[in-house]
Design a protein that fits this description.
Chain B: It is a multi-pass membrane protein. Chain B: It is found in: Cell membrane. Chain B: Belongs to the binding-protein-dependent transport system permease family. CysTW subfamily. Chain B: Pfam families: BPD_transp_1. The complex is a heterodimer of chains A (about 290) and B (about 300). With about 290 residues, chain A is an all-alpha fold. Helix content of chain A is about 75%, strand content about 0%. The longest helix of chain A is centred in the first third of the chain and has 35 residues. Chain A is globular. The relative contact order of chain A is 0.12. Chain B has about 300 residues and is an all-alpha fold. Chain B has 13 helices and no strands. In chain B, helix 4 runs parallel beside helix 8. Chain B starts with a helix and ends in a 15-residue tail after the last helix. Classes of the chains: A mainly alpha (about 290), B mainly alpha (about 300).
Chain lengths: ~290, ~300
């Protein structure tokens, strides 16, 4: 999200500028700015509102959903952490997300190297194919994976989820790592190779240290793509193995309690921390140039 | 999961083109093998099986059911209509935000960007839940309306098509804002200044210079929003009702309630065909992979 400020020298007049020159023209400009400000403020409020109401709701005393919340309590959090069903779903999802991060990051990084540096036949076909899981609606993938997995007894299983979520997460890894590789000077790798390093040494000692911010960002995307995923999880979960997304979907649909607000707050905090870390890492990287 | 997708639709800024392809075909194939294995097991084989199931019995009977029954055709058309309305709403609400992000001073632009990224980074499930809480019969919005005397009885807000459009617009708006933002950011302010210098007013300069040059971003964002809206499941399933059935929720109903898998497979194939048709038609404008680096 690095904003290129050097280019953006044209600014809106500030309210102070406008009121400093009391002509009729600047009066109408001031009115226009105030109206536009209220309009855009409304849009930004609309964008933030759903994320922001989750926290106060999770701390509310009342059993039914009320806003503004009455009283302050952590009982919905303890209800979440004490409920064996919620905990089972959370651990199941965490295990899947961590394994998916590993498989998607490794397989995606390997493929990105081949796409950027390799001489692959059907390269553009392969590239289009890897992005396929992003374009195909997840409901279709969910139904398709259920039909493929259920005769093999893979529904609700760790391995079934791992395959499904790896496919869903891998496009983010390929896109992120491809961009990093394209910004990395290939002559450095060639230099390492001509100095006697083998392919693996050149990769781990020269290439990887330079693309590590991209790979780390890719890993975060892969983790969240799995941990927050609900549509495919809805279809490939079963009674024995239920992901957090599936459990939340069911509870929102049938049994709307403030425990969901507590779980939501935990999810929002996890996403914001991870994505915030990626953002800070990249901000530091771009400053050092 | 869709959240990081928005990050993928901005403009490119590759400093060096990588012409050096020094991995041999064999090494390259070895590097893509794990990925191809995963795609075969978790994507190609299941989708192929699903399409095969839709033709089960060697007939087109399941497709005939879709196209003979006005109810199913209505769902198909209202899916396209809802996707279109959501795209237009995202464009109208998102353009001013993108414009502001590209033109404000650093601190304020960061604050506006935070308002775009925080919802984007929030799980779709959490956002849909929040809309359920906001819109339900004794929810926050109804309470506010009754307390302020706008209405005496709670309005039916949730489980309507309006609720689906509202919540989907919220979920998909960042996918519209980010490509427009990066198109506007790439636009040198000199152009607008030149137009103003030559006598154009602020509105004329916007219409004649800024707007046409932002169109690549507008198209990229619109196609992204439209394609994602066509197949959206979680939000319409939680916020919508029987009166606001979309293709995705109809497929969900066929599989979870009616257990009619071949018919669900036929519906899925139709939805897939419609989605791919739009992607292929507009693939030049849809740039999934460009400029992720400008975003995170």
């Amino acid at each position: 999200m690095s904003i290129d400020h050097a280019r953006v020298t044209a600014r809106f007049p500030t309210l102070k500028d406008v009121f400093a020159s009391p002509t009729i023209r600047s009066y109408s400009t001031a009115v226009a700015i105030v109206v536009a400000g209220i309009g855009i403020g409304g849009i930004l409020f609309f964008l933030l509102l759903p994320t922001l109401i989750v926290l106060p709701m999770s701390l509310s005393e009342t059993h039914y959903i009320e806003f503004p919340p009455q009283g302050l309590t952590f009982k919905w959090y303890s209800a979440y952490f004490d409920d064996p069903d919620w905990m089972a779903a959370t651990w199941f999802s965490l295990k899947i997300a961590m394994a998916t991060t590993a498989t998607a990051t490794v397989a995606g990084t390997m493929a990105a190297i081949a796409i950027v540096r390799g001489s692959l036949p059907f390269r553009s076909t392969l590239q289009a194919l890897t992005l396929g899981p992003m374009i195909v609606p997840h409901i279709i993938l969910g139904v398709a994976l259920y039909l493929a997995f259920s005769p093999l007894q893979l529904t609700g299983s760790f391995f079934g989820f791992l395959v499904a979520h790896t496919v869903l997460a891998v496009p983010y890894v390929i896109i992120t790592v491809t961009a990093s590789l394209q910004r990395f000077d290939p002559t450095l790798e060639l230099a390492a190779l001509s100095c006697g390093a083998n392919r693996l040494q050149a990769f781990f000692l020269v290439v990887l240290p330079n693309i590590v911010p991209g790979v780390a960002a890719a890993a975060v995307f892969a983790f969240l793509a799995s941990f927050d995923e609900a549509t495919v999880a809805f279809f490939i979960s079963d009674i024995g193995g239920k992901s957090l997304g599936r459990k939340m979907f069911e509870d929102i649909d049938f049994n709307l309690t403030p425990v969901i607000a507590a779980v939501s707050t935990v999810l929002v905090a996890t996403s914001l921390l991870l994505m915030g870390a990626v953002h800070l890492m990249n901000a530091r990287k771009s400053r050092s140039y | 999961m869709t959240r990081s997708l928005a990050s993928l639709s901005s403009s490119p800024s590759f400093r060096r083109s990588s012409s050096a392809r020094f991995y041999s075909p064999n090494a390259s194939l070895a590097l893509v093998t794990p990925l191809i294995a995963a795609l075969l097991a978790g994507f190609l084989y299941p989708v192929a099986r699903l399409i095969a199931l839709s033709f089960s019995g060697g007939t087109l009977s399941h497709y005939r059911r879709i196209f003979a029954e006005p109810l199913h055709l209505d769902v198909l058309f209202s899916t396209i209509e809802v996707a279109f309305v959501v795209t237009v709403a995202s464009l109208l609400l998102g353009f001013p935000v993108a414009y502001l992000m590209a033109r404000l001073s650093r601190g304020l632009a960061m604050a506006v960007a935070a308002c775009v990224f925080i919802p984007l980074w929030t799980s779709v499930l959490v956002r849909s839940y929040a809309w359920v809480v906001l819109l339900q019969r004794n929810g926050i919005i109804n309470k506010l309306l009754i307390d302020t005397g706008v209405t005496e009885w709670p309005l039916k807000l949730i489980y309507t098509e309006g609720a689906v459009i509202l919540a989907m617009t919220h979920v998909l708006m960042p996918f519209m804002i980010l490509p427009i933002y990066s198109a506007l950011r790439a636009l040198p302010p000199d152009y607008v200044r030149a137009a103003r210098n030559l006598g154009a007013g602020p509105i004329r300069a916007f219409v004649a210079v800024t707007l046409p040059l932002s169109l690549p971003g507008v198209f990229a964002g619109s196609i992204m929003c439209f394609v994602l809206a066509l197949g959206f499941y979680i939000t319409p399933a939680l916020v919508g009702g029987p009166g606001s059935m979309l293709m995705a929720t109809l497929i969900g109903q066929q599989t979870t309630v009616l257990l009619d898998w071949p018919f669900a497979a036929a519906l899925s194939t139709v939805l897939l065909a419609v989605t791919l048709l739009f992607v292929l038609l507009f693939r030049r404008m849809l740039s999934l992979s460009k400029g992720l680096n400008s975003v995170y």
